[in-house]
Design a protein that fits this description.
single chain, about 120 residues, three-stranded antiparallel β-sheet, two-stranded antiparallel sheet, 2 helices, 7 strands, about 10% helix
């Protein structure tokens, strides 16, 4: 059985390659994550959800920020972590969307129940 996390209406959880610092800087400057992804595919967060971005792959990690409704995110790599239940099922896969920023794959529509990106180191 998984953990479900909510912020407002509903919520959940997501290290990266050499472009992570650039992506984080652009995102922090208020740009859309999709524009910051530069060449990486982006995936939508479940409709109607704001998503907590965590410093590691579990709800025990601190919240770095919260993504707004309708946001799309790049996935640089994925790693196993805490099992979370969300609108796309129950999963222990966590998506790395920027340097030190993870979201639960159970809240991201990737079209797969498994890994769609390389495993994070």
């Amino acid at each position: 059985m998984g953990v479900s996390e909510h912020t407002g209406d509903a919520t959940a959880e997501a290290t990266a390659g050499p472009t992570a610092a650039v992506v984080a800087a652009v995102v922090d400057a208020g740009a859309d994550i999709a524009a910051a992804a530069a060449g990486y595919p982006t995936y939508p967060i479940a409709p109607g959800y704001q998503l907590n971005v965590r410093s590691g792959p579990g709800t025990q990690y601190r919240i770095v920020r919260t993504l707004p409704y309708g946001q799309k995110v790049p996935i640089y790599c994925q790693k196993p972590g805490e099992r979370v239940t969300g609108p796309y099922g129950t999963s222990n896969v966590w998506d790395n969307i920027a340097n030190g920023q993870f979201v639960s794959d159970a809240y991201v529509r990737t079209g797969s129940d498994g890994y769609i990106a390389p495993r994070c180191d």
